[in-house]
Amino acid sequence: MKNKKLKGFTLIEIIVVIAIIGVLLSIIVPSMIGYVRKARRTHDMNSGKLIAESVMSVLSETDEGDGSFYAQTSEVQSPHWNKTDPVTSENYDLIVVAVMNGGGGCNGAFWNWTENDPAYKDFVDLLNEEMDYAPNSTSTHIDVKYQPKDAAKPLNRWFICYRSDDNSAIEIWVGNGSSQSWGKGEPMYRVYPKPAY
Fold first, then answer.
1. Residue 20 lies in a domain
2. How many CB atoms sit inside 10 A of residue 94's CB?
3. Does residue 173 fall inside a structural domain?
4. Could you give the CA distance from residue 29 to residue 24 in angstroms, rounded to a whole number?
5. What would the mean pLDDT of 99-125 be, rounded to a whole number?
6. 30 lies in some domain
7. 2 belongs to a structural domain
8. Structural domain containing residue 44
9. Of all residues in the chain, what percent carry a pLDDT higher than 90?
């Protein structure tokens, strides 16, 4: 009977292969995570642009939408936030006109006017029609994909706003849905124009 030698990998060879795989993974995984984050951010910027174009369409095509968009009443003030432009470091007041859920599990994929000022209702109804949104529909849902590392809570709301000092400066923001005094959350990051996150 011949003595057969079993061939196989030695322990050292296996350790070297595992070490090489570990080094490769340590290089590849952070790159892939960066690409995924960039793709999510680009998705949100494109969604913000789409929303802004729909707003512009409603404002330019209908007198009701234009009148309702700027119809903040003196009796009831819409939510205001003091924001700083990250590009110019300029401070300005931001007035919220409409809000839409943009996170997984949020009910209703349609625009709502701010609860404190129903004067925006005509504009919001026209915007929902322009974007083919219906109350309680989930098929037309626009998710907020990007989640900054420094965000304490997940971003899950879209905000249509304008500057109080320049109402032609329409801005699209994302924010969280934390419970505020008006119940709709706070705009935290601008996605259109000049993304600020």
1. no
2. 21
3. yes
4. 9
5. 66
6. no
7. no
8. 39-192
9. 11
Mapping DSSP onto H, E and C, the string for 4-48 reads: CCCCCCCHHHHHHHHHHHHHHHHHHHHHHHHHHHHHHHHHHHHHH
CB 10 within 8 A of CB 113: no
Which of residues 166 and 43 earns the better pLDDT score?
43
Q: What total number of domains does the chain contain?
A: 1
Q: Which residues pair with 191 in a beta bridge?
A: none
Indicate the pTM of the whole model. 0.72
Task: Tell me which long-range contacts 88-94 makes (C-beta under 8 A, separation of at least 24).
Answer: 92/163, 92/164, 92/165, 93/163, 93/164, 93/165, 94/161, 94/162, 94/163, 94/164, 94/171, 94/173, 94/187
Query: Residue 189 phi/psi, 5° resolution?
Result: -135, 130
**Separation CA 14–CA 16 (nearest Å):** 5
What are residue 136's phi and psi, to 5 degrees? 65, 15
Of residues 136, 195, 146, the one with CA closest to residue 36: 146
Placement of tokens 């995984």 in the chain: 29
